[in-house]
């Protein structure tokens, strides 16, 4: 068998900007995660070639009963048709179906039906898998008698099977559907030669804003909205495509003409083209500072994001003046956090030695004590270190300010954005030596927490702030805290993978 086209895209954590990012006047600070979704696409082997319609087989081997067969007609009277073959055991997957349908329609517009017919004549075999972090591993850990720690999680097989149907899986909030859609449509665009092979290259560590990547973004946003039946802010798809960023949303009007599920002869490219200036989203560079580490934990209580969003937006509408003051306050804190964290990266480049020393020094101390050492506070010999420490103090103060104002938002709208149980957990974590700050990601609720911790170089593992945080999590009784393995993705956004370079991927794709 030839090598499949393999594409991956990262999950997301909205560190700051929940609710605000729904409004184009504000933006969100989004970190893309090292946990990724992978789509492998290959041409079906010759014997499976069928006379008649083109076949596309899709499987998600981490789940029970998760394989789907689609028949494709590229030249029907109403344009491209992709129909699922339904039997007594099959389930539906609207996300996969719409991704195939809309991507093939776009491909037929850009490549001609004849060319596409040739490329697809043997049919396609597609495998979709997500890193373990996207789905709660509690049951898997319990079954193996393992405690919920990072060490235990790294012992689980990659792309672990969940033992359940997709509809029943406990998701962790990393944005599985956005990462899935992004990897699937990007993989298809590449495999069908709709976009050039180098579309997902990186330049100097940042994702290239190539025309191919922008087209994949517009298509993924569109398909994701259609599959979800609503237009959210799209920060999750943008992070899956471009990586960590400061995100400002697009105007939903751009895709409005395409939002009907029945698309008889509707042409997609004029709307989805990167040159269409109605796509007015903004992606500005963002990354976490060096020698810090993002830590995430799932708190296993769960909340219903759409109902939180509905109530918050209703309060905002009914209390426009107060809401504007609150939104503006939170926004200036959010912008401040992003600037401060970027500023720390700049300091580390300018003065790596002072940066390394300062991180090492404060990583053993609680953040409230960071400037207490009189040598650091007043001694001019330590002024380089002081600049770094002040940057981290600023980040701590800003993230605490964001938490306080998000709690106020929750109280006004009467929704548990940072409920008291989460407040207690976050306070316990933030008081650990070497923790910079934290909060509830995205819409908040009883879903998850994020923390930014110092990660000094050459430090024995047990003395790292992350180990201290883990100890707090493992003994915490107020909530059931389960860590996720993810850190920030260094590779930005969508990327092309080599099958054998991703541990466990060949086995799961080949079904062994
Ligand atoms: N591994 C997978 N293979 C195929 N489809 C999947 C897979 N994982 C998720 N999906 C699709 O995504 C849908 C879930 O989308 P939904 O928008 O509810 O989740 P989400 O908000 O992205 O969740 P989270 O942010 O918690 O990961 C599933 O119903 C399924 O159609
Ligand atoms: C509330 C909102 O701003 C963020 C939701 O984020 P999350 O899915 O909870 O990570 C909604 C959105 O941006 O689409």
Automatic annotation (TrEMBL):
Keywords: ATP-binding, Kinase, Lipid biosynthesis, Lipid metabolism, Nucleotide-binding, Steroid biosynthesis, Steroid metabolism, Transferase. GO terms for biological process: ergosterol biosynthetic process; farnesyl diphosphate biosynthetic process, mevalonate pathway; isopentenyl diphosphate biosynthetic process, mevalonate pathway. Its EC number is 2.7.4.2. Pathway: Isoprenoid biosynthesis; isopentenyl diphosphate biosynthesis via mevalonate pathway; isopentenyl diphosphate from (R)-mevalonate: step 2/3. GO terms for cellular component: peroxisome. The keyword Repressor does not apply. Transmembrane segments: none annotated. GO terms for molecular function: ATP binding; phosphomevalonate kinase activity. It catalyses: (R)-5-phosphomevalonate + ATP = (R)-5-diphosphomevalonate + ADP. Belongs to the GHMP kinase family. Mevalonate kinase subfamily. This is Phosphomevalonate kinase. It comes from Trametes pubescens (White-rot fungus).
């Amino acid at each position: 068998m030839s090598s499949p086209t393999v594409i991956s895209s990262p999950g997301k954590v909205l560190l700051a900007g929940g609710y605000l990012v729904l409004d184009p006047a504000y933006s969100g600070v989004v970190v893309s995660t090292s946990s990724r979704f992978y789509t492998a696409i290959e041409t079906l082997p010759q014997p499976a070639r069928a006379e008649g319609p083109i076949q596309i087989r899709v499987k998600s081997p981490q789940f029970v009963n998760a394989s789907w067969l689609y028949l494709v007609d590229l030249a029907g009277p109403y344009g491209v048709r992709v129909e699922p073959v339904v039997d007594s055991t099959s389930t539906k997957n609207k996300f996969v179906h719409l991704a195939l349908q809309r991507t093939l329609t776009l491909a037929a517009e850009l490549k001609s039906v004849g060319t596409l017919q040739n490329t697809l004549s043997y049919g396609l075999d597609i495998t979709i898998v997500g890193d373990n972090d996207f789905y709660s591993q509690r049951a898997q850990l319990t079954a193996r008698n393992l405690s919920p720690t990072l060490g235990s999680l790294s012992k689980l097989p990659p792309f672990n099977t969940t033992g359940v149907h997709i509809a029943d899986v406990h998701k962790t909030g990393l944005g599985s559907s956005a990462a899935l859609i992004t990897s699937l449509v990007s993989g298809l665009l590449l495999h069908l030669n709709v976009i050039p092979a180098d579309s997902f290259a990186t330049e100097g560590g940042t994702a290239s804003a190539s025309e191919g990547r922008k087209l994949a973004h517009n298509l993924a946003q569109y398909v994701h909205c259609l599959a979800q039946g609503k237009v959210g802010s799209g920060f999750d798809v943008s992070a899956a495509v471009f990586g960590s960023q400061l995100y400002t949303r697009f105007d939903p009007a751009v895709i409005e003409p395409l939002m009907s599920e029945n698309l008889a002869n509707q042409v997609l490219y004029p709307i989805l083209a990167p040159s269409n200036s109605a796509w007015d989203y903004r992606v500005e560079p963002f990354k976490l500072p060096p020698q810090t580490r993002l830590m995430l934990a799932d708190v296993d209580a769960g909340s219903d994001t759409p109902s939180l969003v509905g109530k918050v937006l209703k309060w905002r509408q009914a209390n426009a003046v107060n809401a504007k003051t609150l939104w503006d306050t939170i926004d200036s804190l959010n912008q401040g956090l992003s600037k401060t964290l970027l500023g720390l990266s700049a300091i580390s480049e300018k003065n790596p030695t002072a940066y390394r020393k300062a991180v090492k020094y404060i990583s053993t101390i609680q953040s409230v004590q960071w400037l207490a050492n009189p040598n650091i506070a007043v001694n001019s010999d330590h002024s380089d270190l002081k600049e770094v420490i002040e940057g981290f103090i600023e980040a701590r103060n800003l993230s605490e300010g964001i938490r306080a104002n998000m709690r106020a938002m929750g109280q006004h709208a009467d929704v548990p954005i940072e409920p008291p149980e989460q407040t207690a957990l976050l306070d316990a974590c933030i008081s650990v030596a070497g923790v910079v700050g934290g909060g509830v990601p995205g819409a908040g609720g009883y879903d998850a927490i994020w923390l930014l911790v110092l990660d000094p170089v050459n430090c024995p593992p047990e003395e790292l702030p992350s180990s201290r945080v883990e100890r707090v999590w493992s003994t915490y009784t107020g909530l059931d805290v389960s860590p996720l393995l993810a850190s920030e993705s260094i590779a930005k956004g969508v990327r092309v993978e080599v099958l054998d370079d991703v541990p466990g991927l060949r086995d799961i794709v080949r079904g062994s």
